[in-house]
Each structure stands twice: as C-alpha cells, then as structure tokens.
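User: Teach me something about this protein's shape.
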Amino acid sequence: MEKLLIHKSGPLQGTVAIHGAKNAALPIVAACLLGDEPSIIENVPQVTDVLLMSEILRHLGATVDFSGDRLTVSPNGYAGTVAPYELVSRMRASICVLGPLLARQGKAQVSMPGGCVIGPRPVDLHLKGLQAMGATFSIEHGYIVGTANELRGAKIHLGGSFGSSVLATTNVMSAAAIADGVTVIEHAACEPEVVDLANFLIAMGARIEGHGSPVIRIEGVERLHGVRYRIIPDRIEAGTWMTATAILGGDLTIEGALADHLGAVIDKLCETTMAIDKLNGSLRVRRSRDPIRAVDVTTLPFPGFPTDLQAPMMALMARARGVSVLTERVYPERFMHIAELNRMGASITREGTSAIVKGVDRLSGAPVTAPDLRASAALVLAGLTAENQTEVGGVEHLDRGYQDFENELVRLGADIRRITAEERPDAALAFNVERDTGEER
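Assistant: First, the predicted structure itself:
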C-alpha cells in the first residue's frame, strides 16, 4: 500500500505539459477492435486505466504494444468475446468494448463494470442504444451477455435521468460505424472526448456527422482500416493544474491546455481572483494577492463545469473567503471526499445534491484516504495548503488518471513524496523536517 506524504508548499512556478486525455484514449483504444489493420495511437497517457484497457484487448486476442506515449493495436485475427471480471471490475470505462465486440464478433460477454465509488452509474443507456440496433442482452453471473446477428441503423434517444451519457454515446457510435444503414443518436453527449472518438473513426473510414452536437448521424461502412492518430490533451488534467495554482498561488504556464475545452472552468476560476491568459496552444494561470473569493458551481455535461473537477474545486473553496454551494448534476452521490476534507479542518456539509462549503483560514494535515480518482487530486491539493503533514492513502486512484502527478508537483516547487508500506516507519519522520512553507494563504 502506497501513500503520499505532503507538507505545506509555496507557490507553483514554471511550466507543465498536459498529457493525452485519458477519457478520450479509452474509447479510442477500444474502437481499434473495429479495424482490420493495426492502428497507432499517439499522445496516450501512461495511466492505470489505459494499461487496464490494453490488458483487456490482449485478453481478447489483439496485439497491443505500449511504448512511451505511443500505443499500437493490431486487431488482426482476434477472436475473444469475453472481457473478464478481474479486469473490467476495476474500471467502468471497460464497457467501451461492448459495442465494438458486438459489431465485429456478433457477441460479447462483458462483466458489469466497476471503477470509482461515486454512486450508481447504470449501463441501461448502453443496452438501450445497442438493442435499438438489433442486439439482445441478458445478465448472467454478473456478466452482460450480448448477441447480434446483424446490427442495423436506428434512431436512438440516449437521454438519461442526469443528461447525456458519454460512454453510451461512444459505445453506440462505435458499433454504428460498421452497422448496416444509418444510425441517428439524439441527446448525444457533446464532450470533446466524444468528438475525438468520432474524428478517430472518421480517420479509419467511418462516415459521421454532427459530433460535438446533440444529434450525431452515422452511416455504416463495410470496413474500417488502420490509422495513425493523436489524442487530444486532457482537459481534466489541465483543470486540475489550474485549480492547484489557484490554491497554492504562483504563475504557471500549462502547455497543451485547450481554452475551448475549459470555458466553464476558466470562467469560475477567474471569479475567484485568478488571472488566466490564453496563449498559442497553452494557458498562463496566475493568482493575485487577494484572498480567494467563494463562488457557486453546478456541474453539468459539456460545455458546463465538468463533474471531474468538482472535488478539486471543493478543495479550493474550502480555503475561500465566504460560503460556496457546489451542486452535482451529473453524479449526485459524488461527495465521498467531503468527510476526508473535513478531517483536515474544512467546513463542508451536504444538502441533497449540493455541498455547502464555508471557507476556513487554515487546514491542518491529517491521515486521509482517497475514495476515487478525482477526490485523490483534491486531497493532494488540500494537503499542499495544510499545516503540518498530510498522509494521503488510496493513491492507486490517483494513478488511474494522472501521469507522474506528484513528480510534476515536486518539479514545480511542491513538497510531496510517495512512500510504500515496505519503507521503515521512521521514513515518514525523516521526511518531516523543518522547512520554509511560504506565506499563509
């Protein structure tokens, strides 16, 4: 079991480069199963979720080579149809293989997906969309068992209780790319990661229109070929670095951050006293000397404020002057980090789908455990502004979506170190030495 030992740190200074988008890489890697030639995917982040998806494809019989930020998938001759529990249960996005398997193999057995514990995230929209195209499903021994003698184009409404579904949209779009006829997805997700998958499929020979809008039209083709493709930068990673600068202060240039993907985040951070300059292919983020101002935030599907940045934003609001209301409209149960932030001295209460955050003058270091991926980043950022030492457990969640996060923080001036359970207990004591922590925030 690994943990992060964190001490209060001064402002972040320098430049950080954004890796490829994890949430774009996963459906794109799964969609490689649709081709009949190898595909080379560039700018792929070396994170646990992508490694798990690679293992699922290998289990299915595809050849996968992951070197640096380049992932090569050769689907030639793969015959597997079972995505096993021991892999799928660790990552919800594993469901992305369902559509490609049904389209290419005519059958699929995919374990019910797992991942972060942020509340129920049903697969009903996935099944609804694929059923409209001719697939049949049953749930057997914890597996989704699907068959499809032939997938046919259909008009499909994918709206759910909490809006559109990114993964359901990508699953149906992937399957429709080689289905017979025309598929129209209504209430489709508009996220940049959906657009990236559509562009990848188009590069392979698919015929897709309307991606990035609520209505996507896909005309099925007989085959998809291999392609070389570069994944978009990770807007959630960029937003996390922006929030980190807001919490710690400093002057940070974020290379690769796309302002068009971060409009709602930029808007809210500017309300907190941040100065954000849009440069050519990057963002410069600075915090003024004024206290952080409290702001209200509601998470929404793109182009709204992303749910994946709700937890880091809560860590920022915990130190703001005033009272903030953070309302979760995408995953209403995504508040497990409240208890951990309160252990550090935050003043946060939950009221239904909202969190009421009363800003405090200081946080105090404490042992905390990250319950999910984005909460892990929030606890790290909170620890960097807290007095004394913070120990963050559950860092396996951090590794699912952030590449070399703590090493980049160290390079930019933060005081953070990863230790393993095998290290002697006094390793933490040796790390807890007197240091210059910068001015009070």
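Now, about its shape. The chain has two domains: 2-19+233-431, 22-230. The longest helix spans residues 235-248. If you'd like, I can walk through any region in more detail.
User: That's plenty for now, thanks!
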